[in-house]
């Protein structure tokens, strides 16, 4: 097999990898030959994963939470909850991982962002700002850590068919509104996001860094469309 398309001999650490998109990422990485460590909310598992990190490494920041409210309804606890879970955890984990990624000589960080970090999504102002911050963090680390052989990118999905998104997709009004704005007319599958994440980890993507790539069925590029009546 062409080594550009293989992760044999490489190690990945996926946060939030127990379900949904994270689970799909773990399976996809393993299918390309990577040794994958998974952590979710267990500090013990996190410490174990870091201590066992091997020669080459990838870091996938997949943790994210959303409390949907209008901006005027959010309280200080909502703000702190989103910032600590979606942003602080990724930031500090990157700091912690830097020596290991640098030592590997081929490090890659992938942040799980969202289309809400690129366009306005009603009822998610704090969530959106955390995802926009991750996009900027990817740009900063891409430049700051390039000398250490570390790349950093972000993946921004649309609504994906996961247990977390299911209540929204079961809402007929929400679903019709979303699909009407999405050129491909559907929600994404977890493995469609995982495929992009894994590509960014492959040697074939070695010249891609500092980018935010949307896996969104075309949502973020869809402008106003008017079809005149015949």
From TrEMBL:
Source species of the chain: Brassica oleracea var. oleracea
Localization (cell): Plastid, Chloroplast
Family of this protein: Belongs to the short-chain dehydrogenases/reductases (SDR) family. SDR65C subfamily.
Keyword Oxidoreductase applies: yes
Entry protein name: 3-oxoacyl-[acyl-carrier-protein] reductase
A GO CC annotation given for this chain: chloroplast
GO molecular function: oxidoreductase activity
Keywords: Chloroplast, NADP, Oxidoreductase, Plastid
Keyword Plastid tagged: yes
SUPFAM superfamilies membership: NAD(P)-binding Rossmann-fold domains (SSF51735)
Highest taxon, organism lineage: Eukaryota
InterPro entries hit by this protein: NAD(P)-bd_dom_sf, SDR_fam, TR
Gene3D superfamilies from the UniProt entry: NAD(P)-binding Rossmann-like Domain
């Amino acid at each position: 097999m062409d080594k550009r398309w293989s992760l044999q001999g490489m190690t990945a650490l996926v946060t939030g990898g127990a379900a949904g998109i994270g689970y799909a990422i773990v399976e996809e990485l393993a299918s390309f030959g990577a040794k994958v460590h998974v952590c979710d909310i267990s500090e013990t598992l996190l410490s174990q994963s870091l201590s066992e990190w091997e020669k080459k490494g990838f870091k996938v920041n997949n943790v994210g939470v959303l409390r949907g409210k209008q901006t005027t309804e959010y309280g200080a606890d909502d703000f702190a909850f989103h910032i600590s879970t979606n942003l602080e955890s990724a930031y500090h984990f990157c700091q912690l991982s830097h020596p290991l990624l640098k030592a590997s000589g081929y490090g890659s960080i992938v942040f799980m962002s969202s289309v809400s970090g690129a366009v306005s999504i009603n009822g998610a102002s704090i969530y959106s700002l955390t995802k926009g911050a991750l996009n900027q963090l990817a740009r900063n680390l891409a430049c700051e850590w390039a000398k250490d052989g570390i790349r950093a990118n972000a993946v921004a999905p649309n609504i994906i068919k996961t247990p977390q998104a299911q209540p929204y997709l079961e809402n007929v009004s929400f679903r019709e509104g979303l699909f009407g704005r999405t050129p491909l007319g559907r929600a994404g599958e977890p493995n469609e996001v995982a495929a992009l994440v894994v590509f960014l980890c492959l040697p074939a993507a070695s010249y891609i860094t500092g980018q935010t790539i949307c896996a969104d069925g075309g949502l973020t590029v869809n402008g106003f469309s008017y079809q005149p009546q015949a």
